[in-house]
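User: Please fill in residues for this 538-position structure.
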């Protein structure tokens, strides 16, 4: 007997053999058949989809789940269009806090505001309290004098990490701006977060994610570095799962900083845990390493200077340190997920991966380049030869495309956040958001940007990189599964695959692109269980 029979649906299976189906049978968390294979079988629950569109569950190949969950409890600055609005929100929050309370906000955009919030204004609006406002790119933040004093920046005793930038005015005084690794100065004051707080953040994020049709996400950096929140971060996910609050599947990328030497000239986690450890709900994925910054903050490592800035960005560490970490990870059986946005950082990553494969061939390993934000034409065949998986975020084009275009100039705009070129080179492109960085992480919004490639100002960036709606859907289903070596387990509706499903009010492959992001998610299933929505019979 089936556990669930979904009838009267227009199912986009993402398979060539049977691209459309109208009935799906589920047993023990997996799909056991389609249409005539299951139509006459008895089932404990029979649900009619009323003709709605069914697709495989969406997957986000690069997000920051804990960070997003924490941000839901912080001041949301993403809608601010002036510095005065920012200061007003800070003042309101400060008025409700004790004198030693912290005002924490996230999502401000200096391009929209006309500049970064000033330290003096934050001191005033925060009433002298600690104020910490995070840039939407996550590669910068601004803080008040109280925090600068506590970190040692004001008296000059702070040790700024390699590749960290402390903003200063013409007189040399700190402005309150901290970029890249310099943000660790603030982290040192607040981390590690309590596991209970992190588990609550996971639960908050999970509720939002399943409401958007997400059934799998990859958490891009836990446990260490400026991207992690606690050495015990994995236990927060375990606690959320134990409480029944982890309602979707999660793959965790340990930050490179938490890998350490193990016997046998290898590096890894304690007990020798490696990628793949865990189960279908919670498992360890690749090692995450930062090789550079971001385009919006002009800290991505590029080969030609940024326009109107003159700089070449920064690498995430000394090149030899980055190289040795990646080589050791490859040698130790890890997949590598290298954050590389600028073309100079991508050169470094490709050179290192090529060296690693020469020394120890690992065919089909699928190392990843996270973001792959500005890829030169000559780098495309190199990526294809190495079989890497590029993980760009198409939604960046809408949210910060105008800023990026201004930074790199018209000659390099066609290289930004490619998609079609990757496909034509033989690479698969998973859908991802980098949430909470930059903007919305909803998969349907990401699909719209893959199809349109338009900025907020309506400017089309790299029209030759557009893809059709079917390919956009494939990015968030089959290609996202491929990026995790799970294409045979999820990302399509076929016998034996996980019963992770999304029921939509309209067909994302035929609706006008302008309406893609507005499609209603009627229901989300993980392992055949309803985790979002309401349907008769469930």
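Assistant: Residues filled in for all 538 positions:
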């Amino acid at each position: 007997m089936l556990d669930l029979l979904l009838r009267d649906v227009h199912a986009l299976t993402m398979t060539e053999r049977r691209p459309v189906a109208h009935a799906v049978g589920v047993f023990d968390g997996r799909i056991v058949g389609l249409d005539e294979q299951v139509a006459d079988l008895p089932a404990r629950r029979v649900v009619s989809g009323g003709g709605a569109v069914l697709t495989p569950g969406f997957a986000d190949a690069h997000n920051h789940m804990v960070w997003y969950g924490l941000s839901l409890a912080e001041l949301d600055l993403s809608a601010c269009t002036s510095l005065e609005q920012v200061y007003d929100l800070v003042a309101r929050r400060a008025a409700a806090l004790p004198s030693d309370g912290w005002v924490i906000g996230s999502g401000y955009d200096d391009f929209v505001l006309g500049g970064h919030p000033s330290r003096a204004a934050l001191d005033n609006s925060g009433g002298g309290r600690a104020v910490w406002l995070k840039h939407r790119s996550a590669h910068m933040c601004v803080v008040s004098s109280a925090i600068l004093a506590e970190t040692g920046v004001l008296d000059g005793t702070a040790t700024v990490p390699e590749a960290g930038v402390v903003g200063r005015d013409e007189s040399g005084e700190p402005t309150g701006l901290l970029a890249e690794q310099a943000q660790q100065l603030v982290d040192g004051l607040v981390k590690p977060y309590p596991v209970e707080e992190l588990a609550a953040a996971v639960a908050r994020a999970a509720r939002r994610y399943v409401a958007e049709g997400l059934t799998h996400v990859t958490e891009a950096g836990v446990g260490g570095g400026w991207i992690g929140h606690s050495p015990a971060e994995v236990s927060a996910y375990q606690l959320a799962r134990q409480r029944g609050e982890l309602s979707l599947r999660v793959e965790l990328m340990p930050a490179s900083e938490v890998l350490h030497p193990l016997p046998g000239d290898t590096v890894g986690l304690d007990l020798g845990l490696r990628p793949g450890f865990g189960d279908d709900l919670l498992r360890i994925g690749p090692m995450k390493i930062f090789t550079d910054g971001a385009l919006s903050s002009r800290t991505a490592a590029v080969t030609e200077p940024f326009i109107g800035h003159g700089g070449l960005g920064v690498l995430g560490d000394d090149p030899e340190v980055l190289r040795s970490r990646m080589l050791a990870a490859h040698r130790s059986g890890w997949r590598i997920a290298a954050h590389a946005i600028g073309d100079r950082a991508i050169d470094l990553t490709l050179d290192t991966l090529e060296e690693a494969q020469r020394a120890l061939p690992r065919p089909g390993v699928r190392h990843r380049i996270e973001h792959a934000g500005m890829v030169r034409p000559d780098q495309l065949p190199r990526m294809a030869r190495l079989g890497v998986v590029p993980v760009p975020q198409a939604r960046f084009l809408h949210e910060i495309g105008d800023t990026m275009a201004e930074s790199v100039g018209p000659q390099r705009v066609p290289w930004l956040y490619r998609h079609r070129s990757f496909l034509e080179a033989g690479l698969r492109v998973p859908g991802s958001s980098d949430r909470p960085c930059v903007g919305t992480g909803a998969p349907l919004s990401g699909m719209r940007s893959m199809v349109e490639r338009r900025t907020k100002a309506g400017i089309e960036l790299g029209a030759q990189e557009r893809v059709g709606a079917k390919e956009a859907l494939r990015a968030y289903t089959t290609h996202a599964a491929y990026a995790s070596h799970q294409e045979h387990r999820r990302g399509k509706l076929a016998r034996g695959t996980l019963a992770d499903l999304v029921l939509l009010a309209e067909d994302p492959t035929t609706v006008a692109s302008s309406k893609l992001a507005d499609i209603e998610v009627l229901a989300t299933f993980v392992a055949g269980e309803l985790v979002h929505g309401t349907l008769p019979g469930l």
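For context: The mean pLDDT is 95.
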